[in-house]
Amino acid sequence: MGALLAVVTLSGCGGGGGSDTRTPDKPAAKKAADACKVATTEEVAAALGSPAGESAPNGMGDVIRQCDTWNVERDRYVVVQFTSLPVDTTDRPQAQKVAGVGDAAYFEAGKEDGTLYVRKGSVEFAVAIIGVEMTTFTQTPDQMRDSLIPLARAIASRV
Questions:
Q1: pLDDT at 7 > cutoff 90
Q2: How far apart are CA 85 and CA 126, in angstroms?
Q3: Is the pLDDT of residue 27 over 50?
Q4: Could you please report the per-residue DSSP string of 68-125?
Q5: CB neighbours (10 Å) of residue 139?
Q6: Which of 126, 114, 113, 115 is nearest to 156 (CA)?
Q7: What is the C-alpha to C-alpha distance for residues 88 and 7, in angstroms, rounded to an integer?
Q8: pTM (2 decimals)?
Q9: Are the C-beta atoms of residues 78 and 69 closer than 8 Å to each other?
Q10: Could you give phi then psi for residue 148, rounded to 5 degrees?
């Protein structure tokens, strides 16, 4: 698993009280990016491939800002994470370079998940789709990558 997924595992899943009516942060808020506000509900739903349900912050304060958004069926979720981890393939030898997203982007797939790591200027972030029910989550690595690219591009345009 990639670094993003390790953080998801360590920090647990976000719980209750989230909202699915997000709007992107305004440019003035770029420095303190709120992972739950850098993408619209529609952008997250497109990555999920189904309507977005609950969103909740899930991170470690200023070190890692993360937002988890489940689909309404709760068989998969999208993670948006801002972190200080470098965007390169040093720790991810299986990652594939992705052109046209930020200044540098790499995609890494696991058995039940895919993560797109992006660097835009001095900002490092990742977006991931994670399946929790393998009987209903059947996306291939290419499908996961392709569903995350538009979301990552939208976020990169706002940071």
A1: no
A2: 10
A3: no
A4: EEEETTSSEEEEEEE-SS--SSTT-TT-EE-TTSSSEEEEEE-SSEEEEEEEETTEEE
A5: 18
A6: 126
A7: 17
A8: 0.77
A9: yes
A10: -85, -25
